[in-house]
Design a protein that fits this description.
The protein is an all-beta fold and 533 residues long. The chain has no helices and 43 strands.
Length: 533
């Protein structure tokens, strides 16, 4: 027999009442998050997938029988008191409406007998019990649903499912929570919530990859550079990876992949990242890597922003060696780029551009702004792989700016008629904290970037947007003062802001300045020049 459990459920239930079976059918239900409202109240629904069950559960996450929404489901052990541990669900906000809320479980029972389970919902040390029958559905690949009525839902809750016979429980695809809210009461419709990720239950699905998350925390947000390595023996041609964000994180923007997300009201539960088959970032030979990145906003302080588990195609990725750091000086890395989409909006603006040929270089400057304004200049150089006169145009697009730092995409275009191997030199603001999809170094304000094996050669007319970086601006540098002018005779010593500084009087004599600018002797100061007299 095959079976599996739900993994993202933990809801807050207050004043729960005796369970009652509301409906039962052999068809599967929708798992999308939604909300509707009227003048008197609002109705919220969220779905928790069975493949998100926590460690301590009796059973495994598997993928043997078709029909589960995400392919994976939880197979409960065939034993009395087999337990499914579901993640805590959190709901914050105003009071619930007078009426009822429901819990709906989508499951498969291919046996000829019921597989009853008890749902325990624990809130503030009070445990409420609800009974599910889980009648036969007609096959292990036939998914039905059973819904019970419960009391109101609010706060933070812990949820368990426990089998009541030696046959254990069914395979569990997902659990849906439906909540009615009284918008007219004190507190209004101000609900927000999410699932608190937990260490995962055992898996009986293949490991296809390793995944690494490198976090660069910022003010109220975090950037993640993600690298996936194909650890299987087969080529991966197109992929979809999904994981829960920690409670309090909200997806902002991403690059080098397509992004989608599912929300519970204003809180993001799950991030889905994909690259299509045949795309430059979606095909991975055994041992090959694919890289992308994303930015999240932090609504609440949490211990960690890193995921606890990642599902990947029909298997999963093992999380390896992930890190969290605030800054770095110079290093090299490689990654990729594609397209991104988000349910939340983000702004970007072009920052600088430059063009060169293989025998000359030039520089230019322009300004860019996002949440704050910045100015940068850039110059680039390129060499033609065919020996001709190759020309590269480089643009820097700032896609996220928070004042003290920013993230940007480097757009490199070959405008010549021959293939070129490119490298560029940019004058930027701040110190680079991370750069992906290229080799790089930084000396002062100059950033040198060179393409890697898979993106280092540009064909005629080709545009590469796979390289990006983030930088910390830090404190604004102090500006050198302008020359001080004196219009009347003063004491013998003239001082300036620099120390030491040489200043020249109108009569041609010089003096060494001190460390404060007060007055000049006999005549006006014509100039101030740092250095020795």
């Amino acid at each position: 027999m095959n079976k599996l459990i739900p993994a993202l459920v933990t809801f807050a239930l207050f004043g729960l009442i005796n369970a009652q079976v509301i409906a039962q059918s052999s068809s599967s239900s929708s798992s999308s998050t939604s909300s509707t409202s009227s003048s008197g109240g609002s109705w919220y629904a969220t779905t928790i997938m069975g493949n998100r069950a926590c460690e301590g559960s009796d059973g495994v996450i598997e993928r043997r029988n078709p029909g589960a929404k995400e392919g994976d489901y939880f197979n409960v052990d065939d034993a009395l008191y087999s337990t499914v541990v579901l993640p805590d669900f959190i709901i914050d906000g105003g009071p619930p409406a007078v009426g009822y809320s429901t819990v709906n479980v989508v499951y498969a029972n291919g046996s000829s007998f019921d597989r009853p389970m008890r749902m325990e919902i624990e809130e503030a040390d009070i445990v409420y019990d609800y009974a599910f029958t889980f009648a036969p559905t007609g096959g292990w690949d036939v998914w039905g649903s059973e819904m019970i009525q419960v009391g109101s839902v609010a706060g933070k809750d812990r949820v368990r499912l426990i089998s009541l016979t030696e046959e254990g429980g069914p395979n569990i695809d997902r659990v849906s929570l439906n909540l009615s809210i009284d918008c007219g009461a004190s507190g209004g419709c101000g609900y927000g919530g999410g699932v608190k990720a937990c260490p995962p239950a055992p898996k009986d699905i293949p490991q296809l990859c390793d995944i690494r998350f490198d976090e660069m925390p910022g003010w109220g947000q975090s950037q993640f550079n993600v690298t996936i390595t194909n650890t299987s023996d087969e080529t991966i041609d197109g992929y979809t990876a999904r994981w829960l964000l920690r409670y309090g994180q909200e997806f902002s923007s991403g690059w080098n992949a397509d992004f989608s997300s599912e929300y519970y009201n204003s809180a993001l539960d799950e991030l889905v990242v994909s690259n299509d088959a045949g795309s430059w970032n979606g095909t991975l030979q055994p041992g090959a890597e694919s890289s992308f990145g994303y930015i999240t906003q932090t609504r609440y302080e949490v211990d960690s922003h890193l995921p606890l588990e990642v599902f990947f195609n029909h298997g999963y990725c093992a999380i390896e060696g992930s890190s969290s750091s605030s800054s770095s000086s110079s290093s090299s890395s490689s990654s990729s780029s594609n397209s991104s989409s988000s349910s939340s909006s983000s702004s970007s603006s072009s920052s600088s551009s430059s063009s060169t040929s293989s025998s000359s270089s030039s520089s230019s400057s322009s300004s860019s702004s996002s949440s704050s304004s910045s100015t940068s200049s850039s110059s680039s150089s390129s060499s033609s792989s065919s020996g001709g006169q190759g020309e590269v145009v480089a643009d820097v697009d700032i896609n996220n700016d928070w004042g003290e730092g920013y993230c940007a995409v480097l757009v490199v275009e070959n405008t010549s008629s021959s293939a070129v191997s490119w490298n560029v030199s940019l004058t930027i603001e701040g110190q680079v904290s991370s750069l992906w999809n290229a080799n790089w170094s930084q000396s002062g304000a100059q950033l040198n970037v060179e393409g890697v094996a898979w993106n280092g050669t540009l064909q005629p007319g080709e545009v590469n947007t796979s390289v990006g970086f983030c930088a910390n601006r830090g404190a604004e540098p102090s500006k050198e003062p302008e020359a001080q002018l004196c219009s009347e005779p003063r004491p013998e010593v003239c001082t300036a802001l620099w120390d030491p500084v040489c200043a020249t009087r109108a009569d041609g004599s010089t003096y060494t300045a001190g460390n404060s600018c007060s007055a000049c002797a006999n005549a006006a100061v014509l100039s101030t020049v740092p250095g020795e007299c």
